[in-house]
Design a protein that fits this description.
By secondary structure, the chain is an alpha+beta fold. Helix content is 19%, strand content 37%. The N and C termini lie far apart (46 Å).
Length: 261
């Protein structure tokens, strides 16, 4: 029975990936697991710029999008010290706390890197590469396909398909969808980083999820992800991942920059 479910899931995953590949701007995951890297950061934190720079440099270091999906989630709990982070959202602070509560000890700090949903403190050293290689060597436990249908001045229209390989994941698995923006910058006028110009990439501007699978092993969504006016389409993209809400483990991740017209 498990074998039949597995083969059916693979066949359906291939089918929806093929459908998603029709538009000019689309992509889908491969047979191995891509690592999700979440950086919880703030412009009000003087130890965060180094981590922001590290996240921005991952692809320059030689990593590929099929190996890592980097996302910067700016939290709002540093805003009280004099500088309000223009990219911060309270929901990111809530997510950080919820993920921390699944582990012992409960740890919330900035900058904090989560690798596959788990606290990872040694991000600046060689162990990061080793862990990413280990994650990449694992067979995919979910399939994801993304397509960007249109980009308006204030919204990205995206389509998502996701499928679980193992039916036992169905109860706790959920999909998350995010619009991100690169090449953002702030001239900080107060707080711990006063007088500095801070630059950021992969900054999450809009977040949707969790989206549960319900009674099915697959789901398909069409979503409009709002943007702030003035965003440069060349710097935008969409990311998606499947995560176990009970353990925080990330089953698969995918990113898609807006394609050049």
């Amino acid at each position: 029975m498990k074998s039949r479910h597995f083969l059916a899931a693979i066949a359906a995953a291939v089918a929806f990936a093929a459908r998603a590949a029709d538009p000019a701007c689309s992509t889908y995951t491969g047979p191995h697991t891509t690592a999700l890297v979440e950086l919880y950061t703030s412009e009000g934190c003087d130890s965060c710029p180094a981590a922001d720079h590290w996240l921005s440099s991952l692809f320059a270091q030689g990593f590929r999008p099929d190996q890592v999906v980097p996302l910067a989630l700016h939290v709002d709990y540093w805003d009280y010290i004099g500088w309000k982070d223009p990219f911060a959202k309270g929901e990111f602070s809530v997510r950080q706390r919820k993920l921390a509560q699944m582990k012992r000890p409960v740890i919330v700090y900035t900058p904090q890197v989560l690798l596959q949903g788990r606290d990872f403190r040694r991000w600046s050293g060689g162990e990061f590469s080793e862990q990413v290689m280990r994650i990449n060597s694992r067979p995919a436990r979910a399939r994801i396909a993304l397509a960007i249908r249109a980009v308006a001045p204030d919204v990205i229209h995206a389509e998502l398909s996701a499928m679980l390989i193992d039916a036992t994941e169905q109860k706790n698995a959920a999909v998350y969808l995010a619009a991100y923006e690169n090449k953002l910058a702030s001239d900080v006028a107060a707080g711990e980083n006063r007088g500095k110009r801070l630059e950021h990439d992969f900054v999450v501007r809009e977040w949707i999820g969790p989206i549960g699978f319900g009674e099915s092993l697959k789901l398909e969504e069409k979503r409009a992800l709002p943007l702030l006016r003035g965003a440069n389409a060349k710097n935008l993209g969409v990311a998606a991942f499947v995560q176990n809400r009970s353990t925080s483990e990330v089953l698969q991740a995918l990113m898609l920059p807006v394609c050049e017209s």
